[in-house]
Amino acid sequence: MEATVPDERPSPEGPATFREVFAQREYRFVLTASTLSWVGDYIAKAAVTLLVYQETESVALSATAFAVSYLPWLVGGPFLATLAERYRYRNVMVACDLIRMALMVLIAIPEAPVGLTLALLFATTLANPPSQAARSALMPLMLTGDRLVLGLSISGSVGQAAQVGGYLAGAAIAAFSPTVALLANAVTFALSAALVHFGVADRPSAMTAAHRSHLLRETGDGFRIVFGTPVLRAIAVLVFSAMLFSIVPEGLAAAWASEHSGGMNAGAAQAVIMAANPIGFILGGLLIGRAVAPARRLALMRPLAVLAPLVLVPSLLDPPPVVVALLAAACGFAVAGLLPVANGLFVQALPNGFRARAFGVMATGVQVIQGMAVLVTGLLAERFSIPLVVGLWSAAGVVLMTVTALSWPSRATIDATVDAARFERRDDAPDAAGTATVGTSSARTGSECLRPTADDPVGRPGEPGRHRHAVT
User: Fold this and answer.
1) Which residues face 430 on adjacent strands?
2) Which residues on neighbouring strands pair with residue 436, listed in sequence order?
3) What torsion, rounded to 10 degrees, do the Cα atoms 350, 353, 359, 365 define?
4) Measured between alpha carbons, how far is residue 373 from residues 211, 368, 378, 390 in Å?
5) Fewest beta carbons within 10 Å, which of 161, 192, 256, 352?
6) Which tens digits make up the pLDDT trace of 1-22?
7) Which domain holds residue 157?
8) Dihedral sign, CA of 121, 124, 126, 128?
């Protein structure tokens, strides 16, 4: 049976519905498995932080335990994500869940040395990049067209809710017993592995053994495909810029609440500010993803990109925490309106065999950008007032986002890139036996895929010298 790839560009038709998205059986299983893992992760973060503090009474070591979970993305995220391209996505996700389950059980052993706990926690989080890369690459294989964009919105909103719920549950369970909280996380990984194994089809790997070189070169190809393709590069700049400003209120919430509580209890003020952005993101993702037509969402990307930092500029006036929370929620709402569309467009413009690697590049960039934003604004806040720092930082964001919006590729360029990638995926589609017929995108390096020609000035992913008429 011949595999077909539908035209998945945004259309003027109405948006996809929740019923259409949840009618996809695999998506339901993956979303449920991911939610369990997310909740378990946040429970474990709260538990490990408390466990280390109880053992050492050191705030620094406790903070280190929290920060360890971000290290794999910083020290080897793209490299680890490349592993997901080499093997079957389902197998990668199941193996990572089982590895994390086993290591979490070891972390839960009472009275283990703190150094061993941190080492095991780091080993556990090494499984995050390949697992998340495989899930990201699997999404466009389960959902197509506007269903993909809505599915990404749902996943993002559920992830934000899982963060809030996981931290609250983790704090409550850890106060009773950190060991119980860690074992609960192990159980969530076991359940996630079972759901993925029994609910997801066993598709062939995106990269066959014949087209492997070595991990470093394959990882480099991921960077080249992202930053060497004009459309993908524009999306990456847009996403990174959005993360550079939206994270700041949450990252500075503790100090902001302590120094500018406005008569509120400092703990309550911190909670209100930290919860505002995720809540705004949930509302924005669901409302814009469901109520706004696909073509309109694409048109709104650039205005929302400018709006995200713009709504934080009034921080200059040193408003009370409740107003700060409303500003942060509005920022989260705007970011949620543009991210799923950007993510959907990103995967549509990717040739086959690069999805997991490209996800590793993007996820690592987001982690680095967010950490840098909080670090820089935190250092500035040591010398200047937090409202002044956040307000001016956001004003600079308006300028950056305006420049980014004005340099956005034309619709013709976007369509040409999506068409070329879609044509290649047709070449690389599995045959009736379930094996992949690897086309040009898997066989060539990123630089070869991006070579512009007279017919193809955009430098589309495709066969050099051939004009193709044709994100998943």
Assistant:
1) 436
2) 430
3) -80
4) 38, 9, 8, 11
5) 161
6) 333 333 334 444 557 788 888 9
7) 19-201
8) negative
